[in-house]
């Protein structure tokens, strides 16, 4: 069950919020936990053991945190036990299948064909669990005595599957006292609809160009179509994930929670350094707080700064998935960020036109590495982007881009426009609530029609 589906919007939400708003504040956490577990169960209905894994994960975090406070002498061992469980779960369910498949390719006597299904949301709820027990270990927060409250923190359905990554201290107050009023609910509904529109009306249709290009085969496409397709993916992944994050934030407001912002117009950035401060901000904050700074950050000299950056970006790549392309993607980002940090970063921010032109080229190139999991096909695609690398190989259909440009140019225009602040600044200037209501209603009806027609594609980040 995804947010951009008729089942979620017209069945789950009315039933859930009908119960949630009817009960008094002291009982809302019970409804939220039951609803969230039901939501997760639907997503794991073909693998119910993953719901058990999820519940065990919650119980272990709860026990570990209490153990850290109670047994101070052994708190480091207890902490490492909790971290080992989370990292071990990720390794087994997210990476073991890939490793065994690679071994089977290299060893004839070893045959592994079983597909290990990735438990939905595991990359996100494990990071939240680790952040919680580490914060308790550091003394930044007190261990939660109420199992109900901790379970709600991890299981909240609005951010369970694909973030934002929320730390316990960010929502602790709301777990006890929820301030829900008409204004917060209406703001939440509006935010949800905007996110839904970005996902259904923009990310889904423009993403089909990338899907079609992959189906055609990179060997057969022209250079213009290669660039069009990777720009289409660039817009798809942004509006897909930003749309999800906005929907999560909107649902949070309706529930009485203030979830952290996850995007800040990253495509307006002047450097990749700035871009990754604006893209998936909660993931970047997590790696900074729980990996980069503990390693020493930039406080221990040039060599160790480089080492720490390399570790963070390789882990960032690996976190996104099991594949050589993710490792390569993390390594490429590391190299770019080091070059910016020590050489060209200040220049890019001083000359904004150069910065924007640089990012116009570098962003889609890095997403190409991210998107193509076959390294050989990645090489073919780059020969299409840069034909001088193709050693005379020509496109079968040199004018193929004309057809696809005529089909998709409205979405490219919308993608460029909504990558800026202009539409949202204009919306804020509208003081007439009736006009805003009509706009949101039209967006919602358009989304409903598209979902009815079957255009409710899963979110890209569900894969990670």
TrEMBL record:
Signal peptide (from-to): none
Residues passing through the membrane, by range: 6-23, 30-45, 51-68, 77-96, 116-135, 147-168, 180-202, 214-235, 326-344, 356-372, 407-427, 434-455
GO cellular component: plasma membrane
Compartments it resides in: Cell membrane
Record-linked Pfam families: MBOAT (PF03062)
Keyword Cell membrane set for record: yes
GO BP, one annotated term: alginic acid biosynthetic process
Single GO molecular function: acyltransferase activity
Superkingdom: Bacteria
Record membrane topology: Multi-pass membrane protein
Keywords for this protein: Acyltransferase, Cell membrane, Membrane, Transferase, Transmembrane, Transmembrane helix
Similarity-based family: Belongs to the membrane-bound acyltransferase family.
Name recorded for this polypeptide: Alginate regulatory protein
